[in-house]
Amino acid sequence: MEPFIPQLVYIEPRAIEYPLGKELKDKFEKMGIEIRETTSHNQVRNIPGDTENQKYRNAKSTLVVGVRKTLKFDTSKPSAEYAIPLATGCMGHCHYCYLQTTMGDKPYIRTYVNIEEIFEQAEKYIREREPEITRFEAACTSDIVGLDHLTHSLKKAIEFIGETTLGRLRFVTKYHYVDHLLDAKHNGNTRFRFSLNSNYVIKNFEPGTSPFEKRIEAAGKVAKANYPLGFILAPLYRHSEWEQGYLELFERLEATLPSYAIKDLTFELIQHRFTKTAKKIIEKRYPKTKLEMDESKRKYKWGKYGRGKYVYQNEEADELREKVEGYIKHYFPQSKIEYFT
């Protein structure tokens, strides 16, 4: 599997006023990629394709190089105080992904080139919260690792946070393109997390992402680079022989991670869920999906603002939690399970 290369690039005029914007423009010109100008990402038009689904897929291969205009960071509770805005959008095609609904009909990828200004704002947030630690999440609306071989924005953010005393960075990825990040001077201030799942889930529901074996191999590399390490298991999904599928995952992880890395592992567990809106979008965009979304088999769980989602029935959710947490406690007894939801 090759790293992401956009088929089409839009560049905002102001972007080339910044070193990273000019660097990316030069890089894509040398690669022979079509470049178009746009006044703003909101003005991106004419994504190629004869049907809505073709346009959607082509948008996933489109990159917008722009300037982050608002430097007010969104909150990212409970995992972090702030979301640090390096990029939005994702090149993956995960059938269940919440970005299906939040990105609407413009799922193109955006990268921001005014990273020095973004870091200056992050530094202000850190100073405001002294002497408390301030945590930043870099992957709220993107898979930043899947893009960083082109931009190195994440590497720069890791080294920026590494120089602080009270700043911490975290992000999650489904990609194995980590080699350029292994020598970053992180100073233990960045928690590198991988989204993992059973081989069945990755093969059937996560097209366009790194395979099972490659992610685990990459996690081993990151552990050996002395990053604090974490794993998100999401969505935990009850498929045929799911118990064996998750057992295989933990067996492979234990065989791959060095013993010194397992003392500070974190796990975040999220059961499969969907909304009525997401189900309609998923079935439209991926009409052949095997993803089980039968409301009659699920429990409706109310959320904030009177909206809810369909999750597993209590008995099924309890069994899923008990089994997976049991594997974690057996193979990684010193790790921390941050939550199950």
How would you sum up this structure, described in words?
The chain is α/β, with parallel strands linked by helices and 341 residues long. It has a single domain (8-340), classed as pyruvate-formate lyase- activating enzyme. Helices cover 35% and strands 21% of the residues. The chain has eleven helices and 15 strands. The chain has an eight-stranded mixed β-sheet, covered by helices on one side. It has a five-stranded mixed β-sheet with strand order 2-1-3-7-6, with helices on one face. α8 runs parallel beside α9. The longest helix has 18 residues, at 314-331. It is globular. The two termini are 32 Å apart. The mean pLDDT is 94.
Radius of gyration: 20 Å
What's the CATH topology label?
Answer: pyruvate-formate lyase- activating enzyme
Note the gap between the termini.
32 Å
Biggest β-sheet, characterized?
8 strands, mixed
Number of domains: 1
**Low-confidence spans:** none
Helix and strand topology:
Layout (H helix, E strand, L loop, with lengths): L7 E4 L7 H12 L3 E4 L14 H8 L2 E5 L8 E2 L3 E4 L3 E2 L10 H4 L6 E4 L2 H15 L4 E4 L7 H7 L1 H10 L4 E7 L16 E7 L2 H7 L6 H13 L4 E8 L5 H15 L9 E6 L4 H10 L12 E5 L5 E5 L1 H18 L4 E5 L1
